[in-house]
Amino acid sequence: MVRQKAIADLQSLSLREARGSGDFACTACRERYSLAPFEQRTDQHGTIYDLWICLNCLAILNATHLRAIHKGADFLSWQSDSSEEFYAVDNAYLATVPDAIDACGFIDFLLSAYPEQSRSVFLDFGAGRGILSGAAAKRFEKVYAVELSLNVLRKVHAAMPERSRIVPSDNYLDIKDGFDAVASMHVLEHLPNMRDILDTLVERMNPGGSLFFQAPMLRRDYLVNVHYTFFTEVSARTLCRNLGLETVGIWFDHALDFLTCIAKKPS
Ligand SMILES: [Zn+2]
Q1: Where are the alpha helices (DSSP H) in 114-150?
Q2: Which residues surround ligand 1, an ion (CB under 5 A)?
Q3: 137 CA → ligand 1 middle, Å
Q4: Where along the chain do its domains lie?
Q5: pTM of the full predicted structure?
Protein backbone atom coordinates (compact mmCIF):
# COMPACT_ATOMS: atom_id res chain seq x y z
CA MET A 1 0.00 0.00 0.00
CA VAL A 2 2.71 2.41 1.08
CA ARG A 3 4.81 1.42 -1.91
CA GLN A 4 1.92 2.01 -4.34
CA LYS A 5 1.31 5.41 -2.81
CA ALA A 6 5.02 6.17 -3.12
CA ILE A 7 4.96 5.45 -6.84
CA ALA A 8 1.76 7.44 -7.37
CA ASP A 9 3.19 10.45 -5.51
CA LEU A 10 6.43 10.25 -7.46
CA GLN A 11 4.55 10.37 -10.75
CA SER A 12 2.65 13.44 -9.61
CA LEU A 13 5.89 15.40 -9.24
CA SER A 14 6.08 17.29 -12.48
CA LEU A 15 9.33 18.45 -14.02
CA ARG A 16 8.38 22.07 -13.48
CA GLU A 17 7.99 21.52 -9.75
CA ALA A 18 11.42 19.91 -9.58
CA ARG A 19 13.08 23.30 -9.96
CA GLY A 20 12.96 26.22 -7.56
CA SER A 21 10.15 27.92 -9.42
CA GLY A 22 8.87 30.29 -6.76
CA ASP A 23 5.87 28.17 -5.73
CA PHE A 24 7.09 28.39 -2.13
CA ALA A 25 9.81 30.35 -0.35
CA CYS A 26 12.48 29.56 2.21
CA THR A 27 10.89 30.12 5.61
CA ALA A 28 14.22 31.20 7.11
CA CYS A 29 15.68 33.57 4.49
CA ARG A 30 12.75 34.21 2.10
CA GLU A 31 14.68 32.86 -0.92
CA ARG A 32 12.27 31.77 -3.68
CA TYR A 33 14.34 30.45 -6.54
CA SER A 34 17.64 29.19 -5.17
CA LEU A 35 15.97 26.08 -3.77
CA ALA A 36 16.82 22.52 -4.77
CA PRO A 37 15.29 19.08 -4.24
CA PHE A 38 17.04 17.49 -1.26
CA GLU A 39 15.40 14.10 -0.80
CA GLN A 40 12.09 12.37 -0.28
CA ARG A 41 11.32 10.65 2.98
CA THR A 42 8.33 8.91 4.47
CA ASP A 43 6.90 9.80 7.86
CA GLN A 44 5.90 7.17 10.41
CA HIS A 45 2.66 6.49 8.51
CA GLY A 46 4.30 6.03 5.12
CA THR A 47 3.27 9.43 3.74
CA ILE A 48 5.91 10.83 1.42
CA TYR A 49 7.46 14.21 2.19
CA ASP A 50 9.20 16.13 -0.55
CA LEU A 51 12.12 17.86 1.15
CA TRP A 52 14.01 20.72 -0.46
CA ILE A 53 17.13 22.56 0.59
CA CYS A 54 17.62 26.32 0.42
CA LEU A 55 20.92 26.92 -1.36
CA ASN A 56 21.11 30.38 0.20
CA CYS A 57 20.93 29.41 3.88
CA LEU A 58 20.95 25.57 3.90
CA ALA A 59 17.63 25.20 5.70
CA ILE A 60 15.78 22.01 4.79
CA LEU A 61 12.17 22.70 3.88
CA ASN A 62 8.99 20.65 3.89
CA ALA A 63 8.09 21.46 0.29
CA THR A 64 5.00 19.23 0.34
CA HIS A 65 3.18 21.36 2.90
CA LEU A 66 4.77 24.72 2.04
CA ARG A 67 3.40 24.27 -1.48
CA ALA A 68 -0.02 23.40 -0.08
CA ILE A 69 0.03 26.56 2.08
CA HIS A 70 1.19 28.61 -0.91
CA LYS A 71 -1.91 27.32 -2.72
CA GLY A 72 -4.15 28.40 0.17
CA ALA A 73 -4.31 25.40 2.55
CA ASP A 74 -5.54 26.42 6.02
CA PHE A 75 -2.42 25.63 8.03
CA LEU A 76 -3.72 27.45 11.14
CA SER A 77 -6.40 24.80 11.56
CA TRP A 78 -3.73 22.08 11.33
CA GLN A 79 -1.82 23.89 14.10
CA SER A 80 -4.68 24.44 16.51
CA ASP A 81 -5.94 20.85 16.09
CA SER A 82 -2.56 19.46 16.93
CA SER A 83 -1.77 21.84 19.80
CA GLU A 84 -5.11 21.43 21.61
CA GLU A 85 -4.56 17.67 21.53
CA PHE A 86 -0.88 17.85 22.43
CA TYR A 87 -1.32 20.25 25.31
CA ALA A 88 -4.54 18.93 26.86
CA VAL A 89 -4.19 18.96 30.66
CA ASP A 90 -6.09 17.31 33.52
CA ASN A 91 -5.95 17.71 37.32
CA ALA A 92 -3.22 15.08 37.65
CA TYR A 93 -1.08 17.08 35.27
CA LEU A 94 -1.81 20.39 37.04
CA ALA A 95 -0.58 18.88 40.32
CA THR A 96 2.84 18.31 38.73
CA VAL A 97 3.22 21.88 37.39
CA PRO A 98 5.43 23.28 40.22
CA ASP A 99 7.78 20.29 39.93
CA ALA A 100 7.84 20.55 36.13
CA ILE A 101 8.82 24.22 36.49
CA ASP A 102 11.62 23.32 38.93
CA ALA A 103 12.86 20.65 36.52
CA CYS A 104 12.96 23.03 33.54
CA GLY A 105 16.63 23.71 32.83
CA PHE A 106 16.29 26.15 29.92
CA ILE A 107 16.55 29.37 31.93
CA ASP A 108 19.67 28.28 33.80
CA PHE A 109 21.10 27.23 30.43
CA LEU A 110 20.38 30.66 28.93
CA LEU A 111 21.91 32.50 31.89
CA SER A 112 25.05 30.36 31.87
CA ALA A 113 25.52 30.65 28.09
CA TYR A 114 24.78 34.39 28.13
CA PRO A 115 25.60 35.78 31.60
CA GLU A 116 25.06 39.42 30.48
CA GLN A 117 21.38 38.62 29.96
CA SER A 118 19.21 41.44 31.35
CA ARG A 119 16.49 40.07 33.68
CA SER A 120 13.57 42.44 33.09
CA VAL A 121 11.13 41.27 30.40
CA PHE A 122 10.96 37.72 29.07
CA LEU A 123 8.75 36.65 26.17
CA ASP A 124 7.87 32.96 25.88
CA PHE A 125 6.68 32.88 22.28
CA GLY A 126 4.58 29.76 21.74
CA ALA A 127 4.35 29.00 25.43
CA GLY A 128 2.38 25.75 25.13
CA ARG A 129 1.55 24.64 28.66
CA GLY A 130 3.68 27.48 30.05
CA ILE A 131 6.34 25.54 31.92
CA LEU A 132 9.17 27.63 30.47
CA SER A 133 7.26 30.80 31.44
CA GLY A 134 6.99 29.45 34.98
CA ALA A 135 10.73 28.84 35.10
CA ALA A 136 11.48 32.27 33.60
CA ALA A 137 9.33 33.96 36.26
CA LYS A 138 11.82 32.82 38.91
CA ARG A 139 14.60 34.87 37.26
CA PHE A 140 12.87 37.62 35.27
CA GLU A 141 10.72 40.50 36.57
CA LYS A 142 7.95 40.04 34.01
CA VAL A 143 7.09 37.17 31.69
CA TYR A 144 4.72 37.20 28.75
CA ALA A 145 3.44 33.74 27.84
CA VAL A 146 2.12 33.92 24.29
CA GLU A 147 0.10 31.11 22.74
CA LEU A 148 -2.44 30.80 19.88
CA SER A 149 -5.12 29.49 22.19
CA LEU A 150 -5.20 30.33 25.90
CA ASN A 151 -7.54 27.54 27.09
CA VAL A 152 -4.76 25.29 28.32
CA LEU A 153 -2.34 28.03 29.33
CA ARG A 154 -4.91 29.72 31.60
CA LYS A 155 -5.50 26.44 33.48
CA VAL A 156 -1.79 25.90 34.03
CA HIS A 157 -1.26 29.56 34.91
CA ALA A 158 -3.59 29.14 37.88
CA ALA A 159 -1.27 26.40 39.20
CA MET A 160 1.98 28.35 38.82
CA PRO A 161 3.89 29.47 41.92
CA GLU A 162 5.08 32.79 40.37
CA ARG A 163 1.88 33.48 38.42
CA SER A 164 1.65 37.14 39.49
CA ARG A 165 4.61 37.91 37.21
CA ILE A 166 3.32 35.91 34.23
CA VAL A 167 0.95 37.46 31.70
CA PRO A 168 -0.76 35.03 29.32
CA SER A 169 -1.50 36.58 25.94
CA ASP A 170 -2.78 35.43 22.57
CA ASN A 171 -1.54 38.52 20.75
CA TYR A 172 2.13 39.47 21.01
CA LEU A 173 1.51 42.60 18.94
CA ASP A 174 -0.45 44.09 21.86
CA ILE A 175 2.55 43.91 24.23
CA LYS A 176 4.01 47.35 24.84
CA ASP A 177 7.20 46.35 26.70
CA GLY A 178 10.50 45.84 24.89
CA PHE A 179 11.87 42.30 25.30
CA ASP A 180 15.12 41.38 27.03
CA ALA A 181 14.77 37.74 26.08
CA VAL A 182 12.61 36.08 23.45
CA ALA A 183 12.43 32.32 23.84
CA SER A 184 10.74 30.14 21.27
CA MET A 185 10.93 26.46 22.05
CA HIS A 186 9.71 24.11 19.33
CA VAL A 187 7.78 26.87 17.62
CA LEU A 188 9.80 28.26 14.69
CA GLU A 189 9.50 25.03 12.73
CA HIS A 190 5.69 25.50 12.83
CA LEU A 191 5.70 28.94 11.19
CA PRO A 192 5.49 29.15 7.39
CA ASN A 193 5.76 32.94 7.93
CA MET A 194 8.62 32.60 10.40
CA ARG A 195 10.51 35.62 9.14
CA ASP A 196 7.56 38.02 9.39
CA ILE A 197 7.18 37.07 13.04
CA LEU A 198 10.88 37.00 13.91
CA ASP A 199 11.54 40.33 12.23
CA THR A 200 8.79 41.89 14.37
CA LEU A 201 10.00 40.25 17.58
CA VAL A 202 13.61 41.32 17.01
CA GLU A 203 12.48 44.85 16.25
CA ARG A 204 10.78 44.93 19.67
CA MET A 205 13.81 43.48 21.42
CA ASN A 206 15.91 45.74 23.64
CA PRO A 207 19.61 46.24 22.81
CA GLY A 208 21.52 43.31 24.33
CA GLY A 209 18.34 41.23 24.25
CA SER A 210 18.51 37.57 23.32
CA LEU A 211 16.74 35.19 20.98
CA PHE A 212 16.74 31.66 22.37
CA PHE A 213 15.23 28.88 20.30
CA GLN A 214 15.16 25.13 20.00
CA ALA A 215 13.81 23.17 17.04
CA PRO A 216 13.82 19.57 15.85
CA MET A 217 16.30 18.67 13.13
CA LEU A 218 15.45 16.43 10.20
CA ARG A 219 14.42 13.02 11.47
CA ARG A 220 11.63 10.70 10.38
CA ASP A 221 9.50 11.08 13.51
CA TYR A 222 9.61 14.88 13.16
CA LEU A 223 8.02 14.80 9.70
CA VAL A 224 4.49 16.12 10.27
CA ASN A 225 2.25 18.51 8.34
CA VAL A 226 2.88 21.31 10.86
CA HIS A 227 6.71 21.24 10.62
CA TYR A 228 7.95 23.34 7.70
CA THR A 229 11.59 24.12 8.51
CA PHE A 230 14.39 21.79 9.58
CA PHE A 231 17.33 23.85 10.78
CA THR A 232 20.95 23.04 10.08
CA GLU A 233 23.76 24.82 11.92
CA VAL A 234 24.44 27.04 8.90
CA SER A 235 20.78 27.96 8.51
CA ALA A 236 20.51 28.91 12.19
CA ARG A 237 23.61 31.11 12.00
CA THR A 238 22.42 32.69 8.72
CA LEU A 239 19.00 33.38 10.23
CA CYS A 240 20.57 35.18 13.19
CA ARG A 241 22.81 37.24 10.93
CA ASN A 242 19.85 38.16 8.69
CA LEU A 243 17.96 39.27 11.80
CA GLY A 244 20.88 41.53 12.80
CA LEU A 245 21.79 39.29 15.75
CA GLU A 246 25.13 37.88 16.85
CA THR A 247 25.14 34.14 17.46
CA VAL A 248 26.17 33.32 21.03
CA GLY A 249 26.14 29.57 20.45
CA ILE A 250 24.55 26.56 18.74
CA TRP A 251 24.08 23.28 20.60
CA PHE A 252 22.86 19.83 19.59
CA ASP A 253 20.80 17.41 21.65
CA HIS A 254 22.27 14.18 20.35
CA ALA A 255 19.59 11.88 21.74
CA LEU A 256 16.59 13.84 20.46
CA ASP A 257 18.14 15.58 17.43
CA PHE A 258 17.18 19.07 18.56
CA LEU A 259 19.13 22.17 17.62
CA THR A 260 19.37 24.95 20.22
CA CYS A 261 20.49 28.48 19.39
CA ILE A 262 21.12 31.62 21.42
CA ALA A 263 21.79 34.95 19.69
CA LYS A 264 21.94 38.51 20.99
CA LYS A 265 21.03 41.92 19.67
CA PRO A 266 24.09 44.20 19.63
CA SER A 267 24.10 46.66 22.55
ZN1 LIG B 1 16.97 29.98 3.08
Answers
A1: 131-136
A2: 26, 28-29, 31, 54, 56-57, 59
A3: 34
A4: 2-70, 75-264
A5: 0.89
| Confidence check: pLDDT of 84 > 70 | no
At 15, is the pLDDT very low, low, confident or very high (cuts 50, 70, 90)?
very low
Instruction: Give the Å distance between the CA of 212 and the centre of ligand 1.
Output: 19
Dist CA 248 CA 260 (whole Å):
11
Per DSSP bridges, beta strands 166-169 and 142-146 are parallel
Q: 75-264 belongs to which homologous superfamily?
A: Vaccinia Virus protein VP39 (3.40.50.150)
pLDDT digits (tens, 9 = 90+) for 234-246: 999 999 999 999 9
Query: Is 98 in contact with 161 (CB distance < 8 Å)?
Result: yes
Please measure the distance between the N-terminal and C-terminal CA atoms of the chain and give it in whole angstroms. 57
CA distance 149 to 166: 16
Query: What is the Å distance from ligand 1's center to 14 Cα?
Result: 23
